[in-house]
Specification:
The chain is mainly alpha-helical and 586 residues long. Among the domains are: 45 residues, no CATH class; 174 residues, no CATH class. The protein is built from 23 helices and 15 strands.
């Protein structure tokens, strides 16, 4: 092919095969690039050539017939692809239903909750609101919480903004500053973590960091917590690194896209993104298993790891990365201001208590609601408590049903007419009807598990037909690809490129088929405009509730296990062998 084509044509010393291959290469390259490699003169010379002998004519016709046969095979593959694409468009209705099913399911759950709401008349509602107010006044307000609120209120506007810049939720979340105060008390004026002077303080700090990982409400360890500014996840990560534990999970194509999205958003490498996902999603379980197998606790592991970190170069690495306010030149003055202001707030409240303006319970830990409500000073937290006491709160708690046995949540009531179907009930029925009659997926319970099924055999059969078509046509395209790759060797140029493209597109149809099924059963993932993938709110709801939904496994398509269609392969192999003979290798 590197010869001077024009000279060869002028000499007339090309074989019929060489001439025909030149024509094929010219057509294929022009199709791919839009520009023919041969000149118009070369093309005319090739087209005007006539065989001089029967052997030359037979050789030319042999490759001409093979080329035409290859074109028919590609045309047939194209038709298979177009038919598959049509079926894929037909499946979009099913995929849309499956993709949105988690949200439909949540809507149905909400409607079911609305149906269970307690109907009360205006007098019943007022009675419940009255009981709520009585309960709020009885509960009062935590004394330490009141100290914190008053201290923040006493700060100047500019100082408040400085604290908010350090921690946006600081006005309402007391944990961070409380932890920072503890660190200050531990190190008592020492600005270095020397082993001799601060050994006990470091041990206590490591113990507090490890203890913060345990959630006493869920009774589980949560590595996403912090103690002051020290992230527990980083402590756990150091343990994993020391043990040589690395991510081993094999990611799906969709998860790989999610990783690229995380890397892009956080401006880190993909390996760093995988490490981040490993820490967030896998390490908790690894720690739990390690603690069980080695007869220890997660808390003990975290404490030991944190203490080692604090001991390394006298805690230099930890302090530089996650500097507590006490060790910060800019943070220390703010911390000192906070401690001073908090002491003033405590003294002020204690003074009101001593004067009898405020009252506490016997332990002095709770300021009574009645005294707060009648308190005359215009403190912000007192004003907010009064508003809270007078406000109906639908999420306050459980109320006894005076008419029937049992209980219901405050949020599970609605004021309605007495007797008859009111507007509320009518609208609930309408919403329920829309949900039930516009969707064709249902849930049934089998062997203690929730199974997703189609509501009608008509839908089920249509979906299985589409699944079978995707599978069969993918197998057929594998056969066409193999055939064209064999023909490519005869013509010394890639003739399978278009079929590879068809195969890739049908493969993506199969991926969408499987992703829709996974979305329905797990809450799945969704894609935003940047291609980043994350679990949707409905998916999170599935996880939080411990919901396990099952779908008939044979609805999925295992693309990697689809075998080449033998009938298609043998049919075309036979035709090409009849034209090309031994030159066409099976």
């Amino acid at each position: 092919m590197k010869k001077n084509i024009t000279n060869l044509l002028q000499k007339g010393n090309l074989t019929p095969k060489e001439r025909y291959l030149l024509c094929v290469h010219n057509e294929v390259i022009k199709h791919k690039t839009g520009k023919a490699p041969l000149t118009e003169a070369d093309e005319k010379a090739l087209e005007s050539w006539h065989a001089k002998t029967n052997d030359e004519a037979r050789e030319w016709n042999k490759y001409n017939n093979a080329w035409k046969l290859s074109g028919r095979a590609e045309l047939e593959a194209h038709l298979v692809y177009e038919f598959t694409r049509t079926e894929h468009f037909r499946e979009n209705l099913f995929n849309m239903e499956l993709n949105f099913y988690p949200f439909y399911r949540e809507a149905k759950q909400h409607i079911n909750q609305l149906e269970k709401m307690k109907r009360v008349d205006i007098n019943g509602a007022l009675e419940i609101a009255k009981k709520q107010r009585e309960q709020k006044l009885k509960d009062g307000k935590d004394f330490e919480g009141a100290v914190y609120s008053l201290a923040f209120e006493k700060l100047s506007g500019s100082d408040k903004q400085k604290f908010i810049k350090l921690y946006p939720d600081i006005e309402f979340d007391t944990q961070w500053l409380d932890d920072e105060e503890i660190i200050t008390g531990l190190f008592k004026g020492k600005d270095k973590l020397t082993d001799q002077e601060t050994k006990e303080a470091k041990e206590k700090l490591a113990e507090l960091v490890a203890g913060q990982a345990y959630n006493k409400f869920s009774k589980e360890y949560q590595l996403s917590h912090y103690f002051a500014c020290i992230p527990i996840l980083e402590v756990a990560g150091r343990w994993a690194k020391a043990k040589g534990i690395k991510p081993t999970k094999k990611y799906t194509e969709l998860e790989e896209k999610a990783i690229k999205g995380v890397a892009k958003e956080d401006k880190i490498s993909e390996d760093e993104a995988k490490e981040k996902l490993f820490l967030e999603n896998e390490l908790n379980e690894i720690l739990k298993n390690y603690a069980r197998d080695n007869q220890t606790t997660i808390e003990a592991i975290l404490k030991e790891t944190c203490l080692k970190w604090l001991d390394e170069e006298n805690g230099k690495d930890l302090i530089e990365q996650y500097t507590p306010l006490f060790f910060s030149k800019t943070g220390l003055p703010l911390l000192e201001l906070w401690i001073k202001t908090k002491a003033q707030a405590r003294a002020a409240l204690q003074g009101h208590i001593e004067k009898g303006e405020l009252k506490t319970d016997q332990d002095g830990k709770i300021i009574t609601g009645e005294s707060l409500y009648n308190f005359k000073h215009d403190y912000k937290f007192v004003k907010e408590f009064k508003e809270y006491a007078d406000r109906y709160d639908p999420n306050l708690g459980i109320v006894k049903d005076p008419e029937h046995e049992g209980e219901f949540l405050d949020r599970d009531l609605v004021i309605t007419h007495t007797g008859g179907i009111g507007a509320f009930d009518f609208k609930i029925r309408g919403l329920k009807g829309i949900i039930e009659y516009t969707h064709f997926i249902k849930e049934t319970k089998k062997d203690g598990e929730i199974v997703i099924e189609f509501t009608d055999d008509k839908f089920k059969n249509s979906y299985r037909e589409i699944r079978d078509t995707l599978t069969a046509n993918y197998a057929s395209l594998l056969a066409y690809k193999e055939i064209q790759e064999k023909v490519s060797k005869v013509f010394d140029i890639d003739l399978a490129e278009d079929i590879k493209s068809f195969l890739e597109k049908v493969g993506s149809f199969i991926d969408q088929h499987n992703e829709a099924l996974n979305m329905a059963r797990t809450g799945g993932i969704y894609k935003d405009g940047e291609g980043y993938t994350e679990r949707g709110e409905a998916g999170e709801a599935f996880i939080k509730r411990g919901i396990t939904l099952k779908i008939d496994e044979d609805l999925f398509i295992n693309k990697d296990k689809i075998q080449t269609d033998i009938d298609t392969l043998e049919r075309w192999n036979k035709q090409f062998y009849e034209v090309l003979g031994e030159e066409y290798k099976f």
